[in-house]
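Structural biology now treats backbone shape like a language. To illustrate, our science desk offers a sequence and the tokens encoding its fold:
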Amino acid sequence: MIELKGIRKSFGTLEVLKGIDLCIGDSELVSIVGSSGAGKTTLLQIMGTLDAPTTGEVIIDGERVSMLCRTLCRHIHATRLPGASVPQPSATASLINLASSAL
């Protein structure tokens, strides 16, 4: 399970994520949609431990990971979220592979 509590992310004075709360259960399939620049990729990078939120908590399988060191986050990404990626619209093959690995 991945849980987000009050996730905020800022780049300088630009706040791209403004208090996101989300809970995704095991085997649950979720789609994140929005316009260009809405923060979808930033949110997925935070969920996948590739980036840290400015504030808020990321909890994976009951473990609070948002404050862990970068090395440990990479380990969690590699062991608990294998195959997770942030596909871009032009990467159709990656999207298909990601979807099929989730099934």
